[in-house]
Design a protein that fits this description.
Blueprint lengths: L9 E10 L5 H5 L7 E11 L15 H8 L7 E6 L2 E2 L5 H10 L7 H4 L6 H11 L5 H10 L12 H6 L1
Antiparallel strand pairs: 1-2, 1-3, 3-4
Length: about 160
Amino acid sequence: MSIEAEPPLLRTTGLNKWYGREPSAAGRVFGRPSSLLQAVADVSLTVRRGETVAVVGETGSGKSTLGRLIVRLEDPTSGDVLIDGRSVMSPGRERARELRRTVQIILQDPYSTLNPYRTVATTISEVLKVHGMRSRAAAAAKGELESPALPSPSSVAAVEREVL
């Protein structure tokens, strides 16, 4: 099956996120402005297996909010997120747990993401442990990560931290 024939790895359709609230009826009568802020506006994107996507924008443009919506740390005001053709909006604790094993958010600030007292391998292997991924594949990945080629975050230059 070709890549185009497979369902996309990630698809968002009409994703919107509003914060705040509409003014009351009395507020509208007296001309009070709405306190609504649209953080994400009608985002539709498709990512297929093997593709890499970077979301780039100014501070406050909604990049982190979009990431939080995709991993369902927040609920969108409207729209849908599908991973492997299945909506992440489906309720249920097990579905949320399965999603968090599959999709992770990477924070913009490497200083808050990377603990300078731990190696990169230790940080990643902790995530594998939390999700109960002690399979041979996880063990092999952990062995590969413990190579001397991966330094501790404290010895990595600021620009390199963002790449990690």
